[in-house]
Amino acid sequence: MEKKPLLDSLLQGAAGPWGMICAGNPSNKIRGCDRFGCGYYGTSLIGRKHRGVDVICKDGSTVYAPFSGTIERRVNPYRRNNAINNGIQLRGSGFCIHMFYIRPVTYRGQIKKGQKIGVMLQMQSIYPGITSHVHVQNCDRSNPTRTLGVNSLRREVLSLFAFLNESRCKMLTLKLIVFAGLVSIVAAGRWAQICDGNTWNSIRGCDKYGCGYYGAPRNGGKHLAVDVICQDGSGVYAPFSGLIVRRIKPFGNNNAIDDGILLREVKSGSCIKLAFIRPLRSRGWIRKGSKIGIMMPMQSVYPGTISHVRIQNCDYSNPTGNL
């Protein structure tokens, strides 16, 4: 029994056969949830199901061809024209997709994987505060998540385990389980889901108040935290088992979102601050995945922002890898 084809298959599931779709989003990260809804395949959208995926893309960013093929025609997501009612149908390499909300370089012709295919349109002008995105939809409306990259790795690992259950090669099984576990940790992060509706701990993109990634510009300095997308009023959960040390006040002005906690991890002793939540309690032990609080009404303070929980390491290092 050969090892290499199986390992290659797993790695392909991790990276996805498609290339980067939007500049600044090399892993084709999918939009989480905001006040306009969620970007995952199959989520509810006003009485119907979302039959595509929303790949995060900042307004004005360059959009690339995910695979080599032919741009066949123009397609429009809406019946009425607005500032983002544009897109294309792309066919090739066994795929046929619609890409919405872009201004394409052409409506017909051959294009290579990784070549510029258009520019992200001004989504904020239509949906202020949304996580701007390119909508990618298979022509047959099947789920394209697996082809996008790391967001589908968990599904690939589960498929691998199903295969291993049928395998009689015990040594290979053990090695592959260890390998799959390591890859799963890298892809999914060490921490649990932080907010209801944001399974992947997706980080806030950019809005009129700034950007949510670590190191983003902030009033002459840098953002030394990450903003995990969380709708106002959503449940917030402990990313790891630990001790709630005390309550914190991120602003110190007692506004509607000036609340949070300092949480210290049991095993490593490291600590984080979770801001903009109303904690269920201000001290005591809590387990990973246990409800820890409620997202506060951020829209009342910053109308139009992408509501979020701010996660900051106590030593101001980058927590992104754990998410």
Walk me through this protein's architecture.
With 323 residues, the chain is of the alpha+beta class. 15% of the residues lie in helices and 31% in strands. Helix 1 (4-15) packs antiparallel against helix 3 and helix 3 (153-166) packs antiparallel against helix 4 (170-188). The longest helix is centred in the middle third of the chain and has 19 residues, at 170-188. Mean pLDDT is 83; it is low at 1-15, 150-170 and 180-188.
Quick recap:
This protein is α+β, with helices and mostly antiparallel strands. It has helices at residues 4-15, 145-148, 153-166, 170-188, and strands at 33-34, 37-38, 44-45, 48-49, 53-56, 62-64, 69-74, 87-92, 95-100, 102-104, 109-111, 116-120, 133-138, 206-207, 210-211, 217-218, 221-222, 226-229, 235-237, 242-248, 260-265, 271-275, 277-279, 284-286, 291-295, 308-313.
Write the layout of secondary structure elements.
Layout: H1 4-15, E1 33-34, E2 37-38, E3 44-45, E4 48-49, E5 53-56, E6 62-64, E7 69-74, E8 87-92, E9 95-100, E10 102-104, E11 109-111, E12 116-120, E13 133-138, H2 145-148, H3 153-166, H4 170-188, E14 206-207, E15 210-211, E16 217-218, E17 221-222, E18 226-229, E19 235-237, E20 242-248, E21 260-265, E22 271-275, E23 277-279, E24 284-286, E25 291-295, E26 308-313
Antiparallel strand pairs: 1-2, 3-4, 5-13, 6-12, 7-8, 7-11, 8-9, 9-13, 10-12, 14-15, 16-17, 18-26, 19-25, 20-21, 20-24, 21-22, 22-26, 23-25
Helix pairs in contact: 1-3, 3-4
